[in-house]
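Interim report to the steering committee. The following record documents the input for Histidine--tRNA ligase (423 residues).
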Amino acid sequence: MAQKYQAVKGMNDVLPAESYQWEYFEGVLRKLLADYGYHNIRTPILENTALFVRSIGEVTDIVEKEMYTFTDSLNGDSLTLRPEGTAGTLRAVVEHNLLYNATQKVWYMGPMYRHERPQKGRYRQFHQMGVEALGFAGPDVDAEIIVMTADLWRRLGISQYVRLEINSLGNKDERAAHREALIAYLERHVDILDEDGKRRMHTNPLRVLDTKNPALQEMANAAPKLSDYLGEDSRAHYEGWKAMIAALGVDYVENPRLVRGLDYYNQSVFEWVTTELGAQGTVCAGGRYDGLIEQLGGKPAPGIGFGMGMERVLLLLQDKNLLPAQRGVDVYLVNQGEGAGLYAMRLAQQMRAAGLSVVQHLGEGSFKSQMKKADASGAAFAVIVGENEIAAGQAVIKALRAEIEQKTVAAAEVAATLAALKA
């Protein structure tokens, strides 16, 4: 017997019984994004490794431990499966000069790859939807980003299950002053740091404060706060952002230890979190990255965006029974007898041309077995043709989900009759 192959660990198939849930969620997202004036951008799954090292940061967990990187055997280039969507999107914006005398609001959706330990809501291939608003200095666009995500939760029915946390990371000089004070503080507590903390202390000290180690929480809580180092402009931006969010009716919690795991953020950062899926999990997160476009070779321009873990949102929708039932087709076409297959196929094309979804029975099968398949298909109606119907140029319409009298109608009237019965 030939070997059966399985999907790569941490990379999952989406089967027909689940794919309709994805299609529903994606449809809600596309409508939301169109309502806010965002346009789709599609970039390659593979990028040059240097792009992610430059943008995400060389000493981040993603670059150090989680990227799928390989050498191209044709030319020796180092290539990486994208671990997130912002870097590739901004690379495309810079490469194609999309910000020339213009602002841009773009969105992307697709698979990302990180070599993590697979667990509920965390996979090695996962799907991310993200937006990037480029050329806007804010804080009004920062507020609109928050309002848009809050609007999405409302449309999906999960507003009560998520919480918004926000913080300000200030500008480069303010972070440098805070970093110096933080490193000095951590050096005084080096004896209680775990190995991860010691490794990050001089390379990425902000991430030490984001520790999940319970033994380090008291030390992290007493560390110098970045908010104490914010200058007048950064503080005004942050206060303006908070005031607009509050005025627009979105509740939030300030979290001074919210730093995000990517090096390119500055000023406004945020996370939407939930505790409904076990341990607290982030379902959507983002922030401002005003220096990243210049860092990737473009002219200086502000930007803000977010990424959303689609699997995590779907898990929440499934947990709360908020996904619609799978919609069946309109018609299952039962056909039996000499010439019935071709007659039924022509009839099916007429119905499809009229906007009806039709599954035609193909191959052999008794009338009884075909009717069982019609019922199991979820179709609203069975249209039945046999030798008698062919001879008379007719078809039988039988409702499968409602108490409607069976009808025999001319073949040319089948589509119109079904449309009237559906109305």
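The domain at 16-170+230-320 is CATH 3.30.930.10 (BirA Bifunctional Protein; domain 2). The committee is asked to note this result when reviewing the revised timeline.
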